[in-house]
Amino acid sequence: MDKKTVKRLTDHILYLPADHDTDRPILAAISGSERTVIVDAGNSPAHARSFLEQLSGFGLPKMEYLFITHWHWDHIFGMKEWNLPTIAHRETKRELQKLIGLDWSDAALDQRVASGTEIAFCADMIKKEFPGELRHAIEPVLPQLTFDSQAEIDLGGITCLLQHVGGDHAQDSAVLFVKEEKVLFLGDALGPAIYAPERYYVPEHFLALLEQVESFGAATYIESHLFPQTQEQFAHDLNEMRWMAQAVLDHQGGREAVTAEMSQRLNRELSRDDLAVISYFLEGYRKHLA
Ligand SMILES: [Zn+2]
Predict the structure, then answer these.
(1) How far is the CA of 259 from the centre of ligand 1 (A)?
(2) 25 and 40 Cβ atoms separated by less than 8 Å
(3) Cα of 197 to ligand 1 centre, how many Å?
(4) Which of 2, 252, 272, 283 is most buried, judging by how many CB atoms fall within 10 Å of its CB?
């Protein structure tokens, strides 16, 4: 699938697929009869522009808001390019405040990785997305509109519910649910915590988050760095993770018992990905006890 071209998801939703080369997340435009809201700003002005320029060919209703799912660089470095009022959870604003005025040079990034306030994966991707001179284009800005628990945007016949869900990946994570089309934009909410020496999921946190996510009753699920998924695909993948989280709790963090139970339950030899996710849950279990 061509990751550089805008795709239509439904009558009211267009999106630009994720691009793993420089960790670009999915960007989306949701339109009602009156206005359009953009989901996530992109990881650079160039990323934002590539979506913005293509959108001009669709004759959408006026773009009026930009919604940010969480504070991570790949979702916000394109903010200024949109020149739109931005709405985000209040914790997202607080996190973005910490990014303003930071030095994004190679030396400063390397120093932050060494001191543990940045991680190597993000530093490497920032260097790749912003080679040399382009680094000056990094200019985080703050959202003008914030909400605590939830907010609603009426686009004209199409309603977007913004709901804070938190989670280990980013405590400020908020999702966007398009009520009439039952499409749920998850951002990275279901990802593991990454700003840590080892990636992790606290099993209890993950299980609570899953319950919250499932309560929307969505038909289509969009995680920022994956392809859109139907309810069936999503439930299949998430059920396996639910079992892993539960097995880690049931076996009180005993790796061998967990892997034995999981390979029996999944009826296959565990893949590298399976083992990685189990390790994240084990790490989260240990952290939570500590
Ligand atoms: Zn993220």
Answers:
(1) 28
(2) yes
(3) 16
(4) 283
